[in-house]
């Protein structure tokens, strides 16, 4: 039996992970489930999966959960805060950690999993984008295994030859083709962007996801974060990563070889496929996803991204080509801007504006430690909040 911790159990990825795992009760045992503040949802998951530990990042929520569990599940240990998340990511009885917290908030617990040599199923792309090479060195130095959950990176991983870790050129890989649905506004002219509402931005045409990643998909920042993620996971540079708009989301990404061959991974747009792949790798298990019906799909379309309408993608390529904390600043400004947009405080086109200003007004530096990364993340968040305050007060005039 493999012991599993799910960081971010109450989210979209967490729920899909529990769905896949519940098909194999004899193979996987839930050791710990974590959430931020959704007490009732985590309580119900504890009833269904009987973990040893339940962690709420929010202290008040942790007290409420402990109160709910006291009578009917007194054996479940309730922990709180970042320390609690780090503890359950590093427990000896845990073999696999699903990293599915949203945003840079997932960095420290995911790092704890890397430092204790776990198999990490990485959904939380922001953690990797922010910590970059420092995170990859912790993975390598501590014998951890990093398997991508993002459907694109999981597809690339499946199309890569053995030994790709030693360098893509060594194994004859020329280029990564990262597909993107283009999001809900692929056909919408820029003049209409100011009237886009949070609910419209969260209505993704192909995938059901949490609200933050849905907005990132709508601005194409999600693809930008994925470009940086691809460079780190596959030890390559942004000039070797091509973004291809593919509205049907059937091909999840491709790898081009030196001889002109292109390998692709296809499947229904269902996150249970990459989750099942990474959970059981190198074995294959049933995921519960629908089979692909190529006759029903009938055609596949491809086009180049429009960097004028979706500048976030260009900003991410810019950050990916630097080895300083530009990606930290970009990610922090994006998280703050998306949160303000979801609160109806700023408009959709303000998201790239906040990011651009943060990148121009702050000085990125070479970060030698996680502490320096976290410092720059905090500084960028404070600066982005000031920019947002200015935009809000302009709207009030
Ligand atoms: P959700 O918003 O659905 O879930 C986020 C999870 O993180 C919840 O369990 C939430 O708890 C928890 N959480 C939020 N803030 C904190 C915090 N400060 N500290 C600790 N836990 C916190 O997100 P998704 O599942 O959609 O996405 C999770 C990650 O996976 C993201 O990085 C995303 O980019 C990535 N991803 C998601 C995909 C998808 O299909 N959804 C596809 C590919 C990647 P609570 O419920 O209590 O708020």
Please tell me about this protein's structure.
With 397 residues, this protein is of the alpha/beta class. The chain has three domains: 148 residues, 3-Layer(aba) Sandwich (Rossmann fold), CATH 3.40.50.720; 138 residues, no CATH class; 76 residues, Orthogonal Bundle (Rna Polymerase Sigma Factor, Chain: A), CATH 1.10.1740.10. Helices cover 47% and strands 15% of the residues. It is built from 16 helices and eleven strands. Strands 4-3-2-1-5-6-7 form a seven-stranded parallel beta sheet, with helices on both faces. A four-stranded mixed beta sheet has the order 9-8-10-11, covered by helices on one side. Helix 5 links the parallel strand 5 and strand 6. Helix 9 crosses helix 14 and helix 15 packs across helix 16. The longest helix is centred in the C-terminal third of the chain and has 27 residues. The model has no long low-confidence stretch (mean pLDDT 97). Bound molecules: NADPH dihydro-nicotinamide-adenine-dinucleotide phosphate (NDP). The site of NADPH dihydro-nicotinamide-adenine-dinucleotide phosphate has 27 residues, from helix 1, helix 6 and helix 9.
Topology summary:
Blueprint: E1 2-7, H1 12-21, E2 28-35, H2 39-49, E3 53-56, H3 59-72, E4 77-80, H4 81-90, E5 96-99, H5 107-115, E6 119-122, H6 125-141, E7 145-148, H7 151-159, E8 173-180, H8 198-202, H9 211-219, H10 221-233, E9 241-245, E10 251-257, E11 262-266, H11 272-280, H12 294-297, H13 311-320, H14 326-342, H15 350-361, H16 370-396
Parallel strand pairs: 1-2, 1-5, 2-3, 3-4, 5-6, 6-7, 8-9
Antiparallel strand pairs: 8-10, 10-11
Helix pairs in contact: 2-3, 4-5, 5-6, 6-10, 9-14, 10-13, 14-15, 14-16, 15-16
This protein binds NADPH dihydro-nicotinamide-adenine-dinucleotide phosphate (NDP).
């Amino acid at each position: 039996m493999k012991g599993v911790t799910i960081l971010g159990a109450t989210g979209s990825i967490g729920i899909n992970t529990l769905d896949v795992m519940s098909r194999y009760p004899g193979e996987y045992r839930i050791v710990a489930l974590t959430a931020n503040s959704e007490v009732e949802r985590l309580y119900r998951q504890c009833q269904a999966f009987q973990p040893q530990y339940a962690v709420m990042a929010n202290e008040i929520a942790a007290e409420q959960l402990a109160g709910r569990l006291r009578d009917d599940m007194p054996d479940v240990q309730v922990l709180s805060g970042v320390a609690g998340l780090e503890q359950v990511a590093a427990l000896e009885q845990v073999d696999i950690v699903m990293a599915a917290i949203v945003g840079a908030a997932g960095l420290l617990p995911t790092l704890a999993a890397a430092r204790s040599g776990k198999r990490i199923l990485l959904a939380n792309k922001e953690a990797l984008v922010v910590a970059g090479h420092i995170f990859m060195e912790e993975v390598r130095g501590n014998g951890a295994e990093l398997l991508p959950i993002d459907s694109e990176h999981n597809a690339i991983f499946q199309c890569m030859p053995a030994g790709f870790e030693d360098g893509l050129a060594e194994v004859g890989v020329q280029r990564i083709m990262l597909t993107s649905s283009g999001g809900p506004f692929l056909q919408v002219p820029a003049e209409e962007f100011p009237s886009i509402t949070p609910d419209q931005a969260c209505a993704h045409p192909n995938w059901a996801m949490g609200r933050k990643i849905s907005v990132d998909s709508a601005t194409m920042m999600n693809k930008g974060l994925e470009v940086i993620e691809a460079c780190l996971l596959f030890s390559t540079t942004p000039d070797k990563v091509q973004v291809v708009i593919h509205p049907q989301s059937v091909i999840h990404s491709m790898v081009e070889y030196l001889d002109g061959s292109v390998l692709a991974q296809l499947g229904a747009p269902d996150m249970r496929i990459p989750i099942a792949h990474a959970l059981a790798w190198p074995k294959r298990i049933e995921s519960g996803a629908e089979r692909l019906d190529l006759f029903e799909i009938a055609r596949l379309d491809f086009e180049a991204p429009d960097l004028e309408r979706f500048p976030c993608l260009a900003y991410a390529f810019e950050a990916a080509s630097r080895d300083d904390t530009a990606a930290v600043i970009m990610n922090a400004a994006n998280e703050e801007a998306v949160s303000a947009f979801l609160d109806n405080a700023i408009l959709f086109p303000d998201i790239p504006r906040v990011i651009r200003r943060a990148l121009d007004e702050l000085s990125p530096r070479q970060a030698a430690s996680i502490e320096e990364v976290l410092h720059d993340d905090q500084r960028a968040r404070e600066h982005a909040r000031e920019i947002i305050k200015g935009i809000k007060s302009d709207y009030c005039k």
